[in-house]
User: Fold this.
Amino acid sequence: MAHLRPFHHIDNFILQPYELFIGLRYTRAKRRNHFISFISMISMLGMGLGVMALIVVLSVMNGFQKEIRARMLGASPHLEVVADGGQLHDWQPILGKVAQHPQISAAAPYIAGQGMLSFGQSVQGVMVRGIDPAREAAITELSDKMKAGALSDLRGGDFTIVIGSDLARKLGARVGDKIMLIAPQGQITPAGMMPRLKQFRVAGIFEIGMAPYDNSLALIHLGDAQKLFQFGEAVSGISAKLRNIDLAPRVARELQKDLPPELYANDWTHQNSNYFRAVQMEKKMMFIILSLIVAVAAFNIVSTLVMAVTDKQADIAILRTLGASPRSIMKIFIVQGVVIGVIGTLLGSGSGIVLALNLDVVVPFIERLFGMHFLAKDVYYISELPSDLHYPEVALVASMSFLISLLATLYPSYRASKTQPAEALRYE
Assistant:
């Protein structure tokens, strides 16, 4: 029984138990079997590669989502108050109430309608938006996206128009050209219902970088829109810009409580809900797919520990003979597998963070090295790989990797704990 005292003494030493010492010892190369250590290194590298790929891909998807959201909200308001029937008559008090909200930095009236633009032999359907240019500059970023002309050139009574770059290209129109705007609101004549036609002069061309806007958005002055669509003094609604766009749903709910029943407050998340749901679904599926790389590395940990258990049969039997319990044997190999997983997770997390933060430098270097461009400017609106690293996601990926590596150790460790000393030492 004297041989049992050292192990029982170490068992009570919490800071450095012998399970931890032996488990760490087994992770290092041995003279007898270098192959197991080689497999351990491959498992670490595989775990690290999977974690790094997952962090970088999630950061790139966050970057694309942020970039597209910024471009989308650069041309549309964060929040809108609209009325039943499409016309808001007594809109001045509503404008004041919306502008008084502490989270709203600017508000302006607008008119939204549909029409057709005709120039030469080309005809294109458009979404027409009547705006107040002075107020619109505080609502959207359209004034900063002008390729030609200026948003301030929209003046009431002059019947000027600002169109998107793709729309101008399809029509073949340039600044100064006169194009025909056809509104669906018609006039009754002896020949029947005739659509309203009005000639507008192109005062500017903008480019947002989003096809729905550059292809089919046309801006005219609010007063001209009221005349064209026969609104009188009414407007379609009130648009607003928020100080914090993430609070848009809450602000919309707060405004809704103070608005009359016939008015509705819609925020940007509701207006583009299908798009953002699709992005979130794509992000989740990409997370699951790339997690399989980490799972494959975990299978390597299983094979490493199975071979280690087979290789250490005699050591396990001697430890059992000296008084080590099956639970202690199990802990030893759990430590070995967890060390592999932790080192791989730390390597992957560190390299993933560094790569995600320096993607704007690494990608151009690779493009120059191989003489290619991943996102051609003439094909994609976003020609550079954006990156937006979220540290909570890094913590989630690291935690998932650690959990998978821990689960991968259970079966081999359980097999090791069931080793019978007499059977293992029979042929030694």
